From TrEMBL:
<feature type="binding site">
    <location>
        <begin position="9"/>
        <end position="10"/>
    </location>
    <ligand>
        <name>ATP</name>
    </ligand>
</feature>
<feature type="binding site">
    <location>
        <begin position="88"/>
        <end position="90"/>
    </location>
    <ligand>
        <name>ATP</name>
    </ligand>
</feature>
<keyword id="KW-0460">Magnesium</keyword>
<dbReference type="Pfam" id="PF01467">
    <property type="entry name" value="CTP_transf_like"/>
</dbReference>
<dbReference type="GO" id="GO:0005524">
    <property type="term" value="F:ATP binding"/>
</dbReference>
<dbReference type="GO" id="GO:0004595">
    <property type="term" value="F:pantetheine-phosphate adenylyltransferase activity"/>
</dbReference>
<feature type="binding site">
    <location>
        <position position="87"/>
    </location>
    <ligand>
        <name>substrate</name>
    </ligand>
</feature>
<feature type="domain" description="Cytidyltransferase-like">
    <location>
        <begin position="5"/>
        <end position="132"/>
    </location>
</feature>
<keyword id="KW-0963">Cytoplasm</keyword>
<dbReference type="InterPro" id="IPR014729">
    <property type="entry name" value="Rossmann-like_a/b/a_fold"/>
</dbReference>
<dbReference type="GO" id="GO:0005737">
    <property type="term" value="C:cytoplasm"/>
</dbReference>
<keyword id="KW-0548">Nucleotidyltransferase</keyword>
<keyword id="KW-0173">Coenzyme A biosynthesis</keyword>
<comment type="function">
    <text>Reversibly transfers an adenylyl group from ATP to 4'-phosphopantetheine, yielding dephospho-CoA (dPCoA) and pyrophosphate.</text>
</comment>
<feature type="binding site">
    <location>
        <begin position="122"/>
        <end position="128"/>
    </location>
    <ligand>
        <name>ATP</name>
    </ligand>
</feature>
<comment type="pathway">
    <text>Cofactor biosynthesis; coenzyme A biosynthesis; CoA from (R)-pantothenate: step 4/5.</text>
</comment>
<feature type="binding site">
    <location>
        <position position="9"/>
    </location>
    <ligand>
        <name>substrate</name>
    </ligand>
</feature>
Amino acid sequence: MSKAVFPGSFDPITLGHTDIIERALPLFEEIILAIGTNSNKNYMFSLEERLHFLKETFKNEPKITVTTYKGLTVDFCKKQNAGFLLRGLRNAQDLEFEKAIGQTNYKMSGIDTLFFITSSGKSHISSTVVRDVIRNNGDYEFMVPDVVRK
């Protein structure tokens, strides 16, 4: 069974994330959306809210599982029998950062990382940008799924 993990903090999930996930669906029997938990990080949205956002966004997609994990992503992948990691690339900086992590993960575990280039018109979207716009009372609704919009 081909299984992939798309890890992230999803604080919050964006249309950039959904773009990558939807385009990867035909390639796998299951995609696990895995929220990494880090007690040292301050999140805008609680873990419960982020789980809700993901589950609600993909409630009609049986190939998607939503969960949380602690520790190394590759260890989580092994426990899930997932042979692939999914990552999105918006720009050259993402490529350099994700390439180093992907190479390290492969060296540690043999798990390959598949990179998807974000679709046209979505490369400006990031959770960091969304959080900044929310904090400053700006219009963020065009960057997130319906469930995140308040």
